[in-house]
Amino acid sequence: MFLFKLINLLKGYLVVEVYGKFTEKFLNMAITRKIYLWDIKRHKNSITLKIGIDGYKALWPVCRKTGCKMRIKEKRGLPFKLNKLRRRKVFAFGILFFIIVLYISSKFVLFVDVSGLEEIDEIKFNEFLESQNLQRGAFHPFLDIDDIEHQILITFPRIAWTSIEIQGTRVVVNLVEKDLPEEYDHSPTDIVAKKDGLITKLLVLSGESVVEEGDVVTEGETIISGELFNEDTRTHMLVRSLGIVEARVWYQATGEAYQNELVLKETDEQIKKQHLNIFGWNIKIPSRQTYDLKDYYKRTVVTQPLKWRGLEFPINLITNSYTNYSGVDVTYTNDEIVDVAAKRAYRAAKHGIPKGIEIENKIIHIIEKSDDKVKVSVVLETIEDIRKDSIIKLEE
């Protein structure tokens, strides 16, 4: 939408009033002839619309055929402003100078983004980029991107691939680090339970099992021991325990709901405040909306950088949206109140489950029910790997 407005301002457009008995026929005929109109507003005896300069000439035959008349209310856009500035050369020169400065400023680096760093120290890498003059304030046409990429690969042998992209005032450094083989730790360990559960699968690869499938273990309890006893030599040997341990784990939570509740619901009322950020300066865009930002407003900030023909200018349109929430009295039926309480308990129980773990079973139990309140317990059942290494401390 912002880009559309900007293009129309650059090309110029007219605000036109059309009046007559057949304004609807006028609109239909204009649309049929593929004349682009926008911001059409209907009044009692007329309509107002916006149209491009070229489209205005194409409207005259439509007026003659429909018997409508039209007049120009406003002329907007750069072409009309330039006509007014012909006698004001100094001001016109200032505008031109501003455009030139704006274009040159788009060649300066304002942001340097680095993605792909994992093991390499970020501070050390940023210091290296600064030593190559790849930093805020650098004039990027003077930067030798190929040489900087080459120097990165030489200075940081762990980096397998790098690419530097210039996106207007933003420079993006993409990296891929080499996957080095992990050093195997031979320290003797036990495998213990990292949480309570019922063992469903146990496969010992190294060490000796202390429990069996079907046993219930608690957090910290040893499952596979790294201490082995040799019957032949009558000696003890310490190894690093290895194995597969899966257990059935339960997550329990409760939820409450009342027969009559005050629930916050989103309304259709929305307020938007916009301002331009130019070189770090905020310029407020006037709005006709009146607002009083009080309770139950949710704020969302959307930033749209100005881009034109592959160039990114240091100008951002920032839109702050405020959505109103109002309290609504809700009365639940007997079935609904149980469902609401169960959903609240389910969300609370699910919050404790690690990401990527599937829920195998769900158990719902009503633990309290009165005329105006219901309390529900929800138990979620999962199958998880509950292994945790515990280093065996050697006695001195």
From TrEMBL:
Keywords assigned by UniProt, alphabetized: Membrane, Transmembrane, Transmembrane helix
Record InterPro entries: YqfD
TM annotation in the entry: 90-112
Pfam family, any one: YqfD
Domain of life: Bacteria
Annotated NCBIfam families: spore_yqfD
Name listed for the protein in its UniProt record: Sporulation protein YqfD
Organism for this UniProt entry: Proteinivorax hydrogeniformans
Species classification: Bacteria, Bacillati, Bacillota, Clostridia, Eubacteriales
